[in-house]
């Protein structure tokens, strides 16, 4: 009888341990599964953590498919008023953009744009709002109708800004580390 009680306790302990471990495994995988549409965890990127910017790919970054990129700049990065936003991207990125489908959202609201230019040779997108964007505001650059590159890979897009009346040098705000084809 005593052996049965001991066997039951041992079996119960093993089941509880297995249940606890599987719960930890599921909880640990949840952020990895959702990381495709969000920046996720980037360990060895070469970009300091404080310079990594948030983004979202609405259609999961599938190679050679249409997508929408939501490139975000937090209010903590917006230290001064901004009259020009520039998004640069590397030579390894062979996707295409639709400069007629680029929006700038400030604190969740679309703002009027004076001009948007996609310079293919310089590998940059220039965005000029009609009015300068105030400091300490949330910014989202929405690139719609993007054609992702044919092949997957990780691409570093940089955020640069110019302030009104500033010397004509752009200031670096951070980097979006965008992975294509990492489903």
What do you see in this structure?
The chain has 183 residues and is of the alpha+beta class. It has one helix at 2-34; strands spanning 55-57, 66-73, 84-88, 102-106, 109-110, 113-119, 124-129, 139-147, 153-162, 171-180. The chain has 1 helix and 10 strands; from the N terminus they run H-E-E-E-E-E-E-E-E-E-E. Strands 1-2-8-4-5 form a 5-stranded antiparallel sheet, with no helix packed on it. A 5-stranded antiparallel sheet has the order 6-7-3-9-10, with no helix packed on it.
Features:
183 residues, alpha+beta, Immunoglobulin-like, five-stranded antiparallel beta sheet, 1 helix, 10 strands, globular
Which helices and strands appear, and what pairs or packs with what?
Blueprint: H1 2-34, E1 55-57, E2 66-73, E3 84-88, E4 102-106, E5 109-110, E6 113-119, E7 124-129, E8 139-147, E9 153-162, E10 171-180
Antiparallel strand pairs: 1-2, 2-8, 3-7, 3-9, 4-5, 4-8, 6-7, 9-10
